[in-house]
Amino acid sequence: MAKQSFADIYSQWESTHDEARALSKRARDDSPNHGEEPSINEIRRMNAQDEIDLHQMRLEDAVTAASQFLEQSQRRGLRKVRIVTGKGLHSENGEAVIRPAVLALCKESSLVREVSVPKAAEGGSGALSIILKAGKKS
């Protein structure tokens, strides 16, 4: 068997492979679900698409703002949002007031699929990561 140089092998490979087609195929393969709805695991891994900060709001105003934010987010077609509630450290007696109310709102909402605590870099226990049910974009 005759030894081939790298240049010969590469030249032979180059003549039998269509690089543009391979790159195009890879781009199609890398796009999740080919334009379909992302899976729940993909949504869990993605960053929040928008957020609202309820710090320094009165309880009633915070719940109203959170409710409106969830509605608007779903109308915009967003799937993952973050609500910053704070930890309640500055509340009377140091107990959270806004967080439990927003959690209750999310639990009762027909818009919310899942609520979790985000990573520390994304607000940790002072925030809520919310996955919305798929809605129609407006």
Give the fraction of residues assigned to helices. 40-55%
Radius of gyration, taken over Cα atoms and rounded to an integer in Å: 24 Å
Structural class: alpha+beta
How would the global form be characterised?
elongated
Largest sheet: 4 strands, mixed
What's the tally of helices? 5
Major sheet strand order: 1-2-4-3
Number of strands: 4
Mean pLDDT: 85
Which stretches are low in confidence, meaning pLDDT under 50 for 5 or more residues running?
Answer: none
β content, as a range? Answer: 5-15%
Task: Give the termini separation.
Answer: 66 Å
- The ordered H/E elements are HHHEHEHEE
Characterise this structure.
By secondary structure, this protein is an alpha+beta fold. It contains 5 helices and 4 strands. The protein has helices at 6-16, 19-30, 40-45, 59-75, 98-108, and strands at residues 50-53, 80-84, 112-116, 127-132. Strands 1-2-4-3 form a 4-stranded mixed beta sheet, covered by helices on one side. Helix 4 links the parallel strand 1 and strand 2. Helix 4 runs parallel beside helix 5 (98-108). The radius of gyration is 24 Å and the shape is elongated. The protein starts with 5 loop residues before the first helix and ends in a 6-residue tail after the last strand. The model has no long low-confidence stretch (mean pLDDT 85).
Write the topology of this structure:
Blueprint (H helix, E strand, L loop, with lengths): L5 H11 L2 H12 L9 H6 L4 E4 L5 H17 L4 E5 L13 H11 L3 E5 L10 E6 L6
Parallel strand pairs: 1-2
Antiparallel strand pairs: 2-4, 3-4
Helix pairs in contact: 4-5
